[in-house]
Specification:
Shape: elongated
CATH superfamily: Rhodopsin 7-helix transmembrane proteins
Protein name: Prolactin releasing hormone receptor 2b
GO molecular function, one term: neuropeptide binding
Number of helices: 9
CATH topology: Rhopdopsin 7-helix transmembrane proteins
Keywords: G-protein coupled receptor, Membrane, Receptor, Transducer, Transmembrane, Transmembrane helix
Radius of gyration: 23 Å
Pfam families: 7tm_1
InterPro entries: GPCR_Rhodpsn, GPCR_Rhodpsn_7TM, Prolrel_pep_rcpt
Low-confidence stretches: 1-26, 320-338
Structural class: mainly alpha
Oligomer: single chain
Distance between the termini: 49 Å
CATH architecture: Up-down Bundle
Number of strands: 2
Order of helices and strands: HHHHEEHHHHH
CATH class: Mainly Alpha
Number of domains: 1
Length: 338
């Protein structure tokens, strides 16, 4: 059975993969192992990050709550995007999870993507104010809760048009079920929605992240510690600045690079489907989708595990300290290499 690519062109979602069946063949045997690796690393890394933030009172601050929200959305994105995408892409019967799961999954998938992107932007702005304007009053915990609620609410509002045009269609004679986004007779509205989403979820956030971290880099470069410094102190400060510059560059590069392929793919598909190789259409889209999902693996390391405080708290939790009344030889130790 072969379903033509042109017949089932969904309306350009960042997270969902086109259902394009080609006799159930898998063009690349590494696709599934790579997806499984992303799922395991993304879920475990983000869960561990959430666990550290929730468990330690020292970690209860505005910045870490933003990071925790990012970790939760990334973990949810891995759980909803990766397994359902693989099953849908390679199952000869198409969507096999029923009508309710069709609408639920296709609602949660883009919401988690938008929440992750907007939270990344909020973290960049928060760090900008903390570094460039250190004397200004930071936002309160209550304001942080309002910002996070606004991020989730905005993300839900943005997916309403897509969910309204999502259909669960059964082809009983062919034994095929599809769950896709169709804008029948509304091509102009579809393109307006697609490019508006691109602007709100990639171009503007990437610009905000770049500007914020550029200002942070300039501020740190021009910052001079007061008083007379020894040679070792001056070298230590230069090393600290180089570390921060590298981290900032990695954060910006990870955000831009991970999400660029899927956006380019969607734009090419909207301009002319023939610009994408028809034979390898599914493989190309899966690779672009995999690249986007890999951001959920990068974020825990970029925003937490590369920072000393998170590593210190993690070591505390995984190291068995000697307690009063408990023999040392009965204490199992665990080492964590970060």
């Amino acid at each position: 059975m072969k379903i033509s690519v042109e017949k089932y062109i969904p309306a350009g979602k960042d997270c969902c993969v086109l259902k394009c069946l080609d006799d159930g063949k898998n063009d690349d045997p590494l696709i599934i192992p790579c997806y499984v690796l992303v799922l395991l690393v993304g879920v475990f890394g983000n869960y561990l990050l959430i666990y550290v933030i929730c468990r330690s009172r020292k970690m209860h601050n505005v910045t870490n709550f933003f990071i925790g929200n990012l970790a939760f959305s990334d973990m949810l994105m891995c759980v909803t995007c990766v397994p359902f995408t693989l099953a849908y892409a390679f199952s000869p019967h198409g969507w096999t999870f029923g009508r309710f799961m069709c609408y639920l999954v296709f609602l949660i998938q883009p919401v988690t993507v938008y929440v992750s992107v907007f939270t990344l932007t909020a973290i960049a702005v928060d760090r900008y104010y903390a570094t460039v304007h250190p004397l200004k009053k930071r936002i309160s915990m209550a304001a942080c809760a309002y910002v996070l609620s606004g991020i989730w609410l905005l993300s839900c509002v943005l997916v309403v048009p897509a969910v309204a045009h999502t259909y669960h269609v059964e082809f009983r004679e062919e034994g095929l079920t599809i769950c896709e986004e169709f804008w029948l007779g509304q091509e102009t509205q579809r393109l307006v929605y697609a490019y508006s989403t691109l602007l709100l979820t990639y171009i503007l956030p990437l610009s905000a992240v770049c500007v914020s971290y550029l200002c942070i880099s300039v501020k740190l470069r021009n910052c001079v510690a007061p008083g007379h410094r020894t040679r070792d102190q001056a070298e230590a400060q230069r090393a600290r600045k180089r570390k921060i510059f590298r981290l900032v560059s990695l954060v910006v590069a990870a955000f831009g690079v991970c999400w660029l392929p899927i956006h380019v793919f969607n734009i090419l598909r909207d301009i002319d489907i023939r610009l994408i190789n028809k034979r390898h259409f599914l493989l190309i889209q899966l690779l672009c989708h995999l690249c986007a999902m890999s951001s959920s693996c990068c974020n825990p390391f970029l925003y937490a595990w590369l920072h000393d405080r998170f590593r210190a708290e993690l070591r505390k939790m995984f190291t068995c300290h000697r307690r009063i009344g408990i023999p040392a030889n009965h204490c199992a130790t665990a080492s964590v290499v970060l």
